[in-house]
Amino acid sequence: MRALRANSTLTLAATVLAAVLVVANISSLNVALPELSRELGASQSDVQWMVDIYAFFLASLLLPAGALGDKFGRRSMLLLGVTILCIANAATLFTEHLDFIEQNEARLVIAFRALSGIGAAFIFPATLSTITTTLPPDKKERGVAIWTASVFFGGLSGVLLSGALIENYSWESVFLVMSILSAAILLFCSICLPNSSSPEKSNLDPLGSLLSLLAIGGIVFAIMEGPIKGWDSALILSCFIAGGIFLVAFVIWESKTRRPLLDVFVFKDRSVRSGSLSLLVQFTVAFGFFFVAVQFIAYVLGFGPLDTGLSFLPTAIGLFPASLVAIPLTKRFGFRVVGFLGLCLLGVSLYLGAQFHSESSFLDFALVAVIYGAGIGLASPPATEIIVSSLPFEKQGVASALNDVLRELGAVIGIAIAGSMFNSGYRSSIDSLQEFPQEILELAKESPAIAPQLASSLETSMDNFLYQITVSVAEGWSDSLWALLFVVAGGAICFVLWAPGKKQQTKASEIMGSSRTGLRYEEIATYIEIEGARKKDRIRVTQRRLDGA
């Protein structure tokens, strides 16, 4: 057993599988959304919350979960998270029998998705930090690149798996298979994953955790419910204001407390700041794109669940080759050049996709998917590596959690922005229709999934009604991609201004911890003597620690 845990290949496999499980739990539900909407009578807002509530709790709890992993052991926290995820997925199978708790089955699904997000928060930071603290130096960079690619592979595999299941079975089969996979990965990780921790350097910050939860919650709720309740409603404006106040309070508290959950001074470092911005933008686009693409493929292209899942395969054509060459290109040309190129490719894919209409074909979508994948593949690995390498060994749990919280915060924001813009564009297009009964249009505004049932009540204009629903979905898709394009454009401009060039990047890596970053590091050398039967070996081990810590 000890030999298995010392095997770096098995360690990498275990962490990658756990990361894939977390991301697949987000994307797998996307293909199931039309089926869930029809079967449970869920509104478009309910459907959006089913996806976003998972990412919301995942993003909100990543930093405290990373700190707990540093203190009590990353393996222990990962196994706890996989256990919770397994239980939550299994419990979702019994929502129809839990009407004594809540009669609305859609709300029960949302509640169990929230529990899944809590479990995922314990898994994700432990995966990357285990790679950076246990893999040999010569395998660490490749391990980070494989981990980064696996995150996107998890998104693709979740879509493909759920598409195949829903094509042949009901939506419950997705949760059944996810619970079985969770149990299998739990067993594999318990056997092959080594434990690592830095208890003396872990920072548990309850107040900071609460403030971050309230800040993210207020802002995300306002973005998601704005199209439904009205952007100028008192509730939405109050949530925006409250979220902003809690965010400012979080930053102030973290800058003042002696043991911060997130050391905000690390953002003085250009590498950390630009890498963080890049990851946030990438994942805002990635999950926003995934969320609305499923609806475009299902309702405009008319594909079934399996074909919808297969439609995302062209993304891998651009993603995996770009991921493999991203870090070597960064070493040659610098982080600024490669990262900016990746964001530009993302922008190009969004611009092309925003031109789609109700007559667009799958070939159009496939071209956009390839360019989108290449953009993510070029931008993500170097951004991950530059953040991890900027923080010392004993802070790798927080470094991993920072990487993960940026990804999941991007997922929350992306789904919220894209979903809200889709909702707004779709509803506005429906409101412009005059030739159909008003009561039919009001029902159609809730979700395009129920359009076929509504059309059956229209004897003479059924085909025209379904066509107009398709046009409305295409309008929502286009509005979503324009919004995401503005996010990428703003992010790319800030990235170019902040990111270090090749010379600055090389110099920063040599003098990491200089006064420019706001953090000072000292190098500590220790010696380990290993005495055998015939000779004695002396090994020198060095690590960087915060000066004065």
CA-atom Rg in angstroms: 24 Å
Quickly give the structural class: mainly alpha
Largest sheet: 2 strands, antiparallel
- Relative helix content: over 70%
Distance between the termini: 35 Å
Mean pLDDT: 80
State the order of secondary-structure elements, H for helix, E for strand: HHHHHHHHHHHHHHHHHHHEE
Task: Report the strand count.
Answer: 2
Helix count, per DSSP? 19
Task: Extract low-pLDDT stretches.
Answer: 510-521, 526-533, 539-549
Oligomer: single chain
Give the DSSP E fraction (strand runs of 2 or more residues). Answer: under 5%
The neighbouring-strand order within the major sheet is: 1-2
- Give the overall form: globular
Your description of this structure?
This protein is mainly alpha-helical and 549 residues long. Helix content is 75%, strand content 4%. The chain is built from 19 helices and two strands. It has helices at 2-5, 8-40, 44-72, 74-91, 105-134, 137-168, 172-192, 206-229, 234-256, 270-299, 305-310, 313-333, 335-354, 362-388, 396-431, 438-446, 451-455, 462-498, 502-510; strands at residues 521-531, 536-546. A two-stranded antiparallel ribbon has the order 1-2. Helix 8 (206-229) packs antiparallel against helix 9 (234-256). It starts with a helix and ends with a strand.
In brief, what are we looking at here?
By secondary structure, the chain is mainly alpha-helical.
List its salient traits:
single chain; globular; mainly alpha; 19 helices; two-stranded antiparallel sheet; 549 residues
